């Protein structure tokens, strides 16, 4: 059975600023043992997507579509079922480990908490499991008695991962879980996550703005812009040979060392990602797009297969088989 | 001898901590930034790179060593510092935090002129700085407030604020870290254009080696208060010699260094710098026994390494005198080749 199946997910916030469509029709699937990266910048809806997967959004958010976890629809299940799914079915590792851990409790106690809530075990047993989990994430047993402030950023992030693993979930969602860490610590934590995925056959949804990290650690990647998936394909192919001008720009923000074309030639886009409350018409990327044609202003492109490859792109230019990088294409400006 | 640009010799910055301990944040560094070159200062958080940048700006009094600009040593009187900062300017990391939300773009850029009491042609100078920073037509931006601008434009305003005094060198601490990824390239391209058109020199402090690859002419890699490898960015990044640099490069996607070499642990703190080579407790070459085989393992553990000279002198790799590595193993490998 498909582990995670998201169909036509829409999330709309109703706030004082009006109606804000944060996620506008996202379809993704993750099989057991698979890793899916979700890439995008601030305001693209990637964190809203993560929260929607476990129904963690505020009441003011209107959610439609389907989120099936092992076949059950998370969006319609009862509170009792939902409580059982959170932690045990799927768990989330958030970005700011400092703020997600309780500063006045020792780390072992915090890891044991979900175990005690979900399983009929004694406190001593739960504590034993917590220490074991710390070992699995590479922390010595004596660290179980530490308070969060006694740990470094990387160690705290490991505690968060241990917590996410506590109830042996089938799916782990990592939302910018390593963004705040130094490269070397990030590599340690990512290795750890990769090992756990391989050993336990869990599914992983890894959310990050860093397309290069996703390309190295995920099988597939979905690039999001303005609440939609604009490109989906094998992670490394999307990074190395993007078929959407936005993915291409995002990839070029993370130059590969040794790539002569990137040396002394930084590329970027003007402007900011759009305000979800005020999206441009047509393709929402067209005001920043270096290869936009007249069609892009008039209609919103659908996510369609490109050529024979298992790649989807929501770009008219790419769908016509033309290159998406500026300088390689000459389109008349209309 | 007068050498153009900014240089530091034997620079040390120490902080006293409670309990009588001393943190050696910058522990003997020689570095030089000449006009017209972009130098990247790379390293992990806590390695001392921001302290070094602050010391180079005169914001931190060094414990020892000297900073000079165009061969003139920096003095720390208020007047001398003010004069110095006309030549060497700072670009802050987070443009949203660096700009006063109640000041217009014009006020933000003109502030430097007012501090330095440069009253003639104020509006022309502001307009020129803005257009050099890529905000054209400049007049259109004069009365805008920061919240009306995009993140990239705000960073351009911060850069214009530095440019208005006509500096020769700018020191930029993580200039694009707080910008959205797709916008970063534009700001980096601006730094390169300023280098090419006005001969501006820049020291870019960053943890991001990909960024260094895209803009830096030279790179200095810092570990625990000391520069451990430096040289032309192309060479250092594609063929790093120091085990620490090799590890840093190896964990990047599609890296030229086979790997990944994931170092265990985190940088030790600056209050207890290890004896011998400061990197030896985490060094993968020492751990693998390769250093032992080369007969340098005892040196790694006990013999301190010399401080790297700023740009010229005896480098370990014979073909290029500007490439320098502070590593016993790399030095032994070069000797055996020769």
Helix-strand blueprint:
The complex is a heterodimer of chains A (334) and B (338).
Chain A: E1 4-15, E2 18-30, E3 35-39, H1 46-53, E4 61-69, E5 72-73, H2 79-85, E6 90-93, H3 97-100, H4 107-118, H5 123-136, H6 153-165, E7 171-175, H7 183-200, E8 203-208, H8 211-217, E9 220-225, E10 228-234, H9 235-240, H10 245-252, H11 294-298, E11 304-305, E12 312-313, H12 316-319
Parallel strand pairs in A: 3-8, 3-9, 6-7, 7-8
Antiparallel strand pairs in A: 1-2, 1-4, 4-5, 9-10, 10-12, 11-12
Helix pairs in contact in A: 4-5, 4-6, 5-6, 6-7
Chain B: E1 6-16, E2 22-33, E3 38-42, H1 49-56, E4 64-69, E5 72-73, H2 78-87, E6 88-91, H3 95-98, H4 105-115, H5 122-132, H6 138-141, H7 151-163, E7 169-173, H8 181-198, E8 201-206, H9 209-215, E9 218-223, E10 226-232, H10 233-238, H11 243-250, H12 284-287, H13 290-293, H14 297-302, E11 324-325, H15 328-337
Parallel strand pairs in B: 3-8, 3-9, 6-7, 7-8
Antiparallel strand pairs in B: 1-2, 1-4, 4-5, 9-10, 10-11
Helix pairs in contact in B: 4-5, 4-7, 5-7, 7-8
Question: Can you give the helix content of chain B as a percent range?
Answer: 25-40%
The largest sheet of chain A has its strands arranged as 6-7-8-3-9-10-12-11
Give the low-confidence spans of chain B: 312-319
Overall shape of chain A: it is: globular
Walk me through the structure.
The complex is a heterodimer of chains A (334) and B (338). Chain A is of the alpha/beta class and 334 residues long. Chain A is built from twelve helices and twelve strands. Chain A has helices spanning 46-53, 79-85, 97-100, 107-118, 123-136, 153-165, 183-200, 211-217, 235-240, 245-252, 294-298, 316-319, and strands at 4-15, 18-30, 35-39, 61-69, 72-73, 90-93, 171-175, 203-208, 220-225, 228-234, 304-305, 312-313. In chain A, helix 4 packs across helix 5 (123-136) and helix 6 packs parallel to helix 7. Chain A starts with a strand and ends in a 15-residue tail after the last helix. Chain B has 338 residues and is an alpha/beta fold. Chain B has a domain at 240-337. In chain B, 37% of the residues lie in helices and 20% in strands. Chain B is built from 15 helices and eleven strands. Chain B has helices spanning 49-56, 78-87, 95-98, 105-115, 122-132, 138-141, 151-163, 181-198, 209-215, 233-238, 243-250, 284-287, 290-293, 297-302, 328-337; strands at residues 6-16, 22-33, 38-42, 64-69, 72-73, 88-91, 169-173, 201-206, 218-223, 226-232, 324-325. A seven-stranded mixed sheet of chain B has the order 6-7-8-3-9-10-11, sandwiched between helices. A four-stranded antiparallel sheet of chain B has the order 2-1-4-5. Chain B starts with 5 loop residues before the first strand and ends with a helix. The A-B interface holds A 41-42, 152, 154, 182-188, 191, 209-213, 215-216, 239-240, 246, 249-250, 252-259, 262-273, 288 and B 44-45, 150-152, 180-189, 192, 207, 209-211, 213-215, 234, 237-238, 247-249, 251-256, 260, 262-264, 266.
